[in-house]
Amino acid sequence: GGSDDQKRRAAERAAELVSSGETVGLGTGSTTAFAIRALGRAVDGGLDVRGVPTSFASRELARDVGIPLASLDEVASVDIAIDGADRLDADLNLIKGGGAAHAREKIVAAAASRFVVVADPSKVAETLDRSVPLEVLPDARTVVAGAVEELGGDPELRRAERKDGPVVTDNGNLVLDCEFGRIADPASLAADLSATPGVVEHGLFVGLADEAYVGTDDGVDVRR
Ligand code: DER
After folding, report:
1. Does 12 qualify as catalytic in the annotation?
2. Which of 12, 105, 135, 201 is catalytic?
3. Could you identify the atom of ligand 1 that is nearest to the CA of residue 30?
4. Which tens digits make up the pLDDT trace of 132-149?
């Protein structure tokens, strides 16, 4: 992955977009964490915002840095959402879900008037070519795996690192990482995955991002 400096540059530039009085969607992952920390400093300096976290992790970090929080069910929309990505292509379509938070992330991203992705250059690809995480109802994992194979994918249950057995999401579901190879038509695959019973949410974010801030060694590359 990219360097912390690259991630920090992108994230801090995105955090500057947030104005007083706004509600901001707080994404999940190490890149967005820099934006959350920057917003915490801005709140100390008088910025008046409400943060809507997308995971246990981003809620804990936002609380630590003093950002006033609103829970997802308290807001009908957010003014701006800042979140990372595992991959982004030239059309700003994304693969997300490396942190298994993509179900809430997508709700917040879709509810945002402005969705800004923050990334480092290692995330950028011509076409999306990485496995797609699916959050699945636990009992549906076998039927969903079969449906994924029908779609040409290779599903793998995401194992936990410091826990026996699989990763369990903040919503109590499991994650299948599905390798499809190069994804030439993300919109079509996204539609097929959304139509698969038992899939709570997939990690393809098609047509959601308004802009991407890609941190480089000497600045931020803004893509719209
Ligand atoms: O889970 C996600 O979609 C995250 O945004 C994520 O995978 C990016 O994480 P990173 O900023 O730590 O690479």
Report:
1. no
2. 105
3. 12
4. 999 999 999 999 999 999
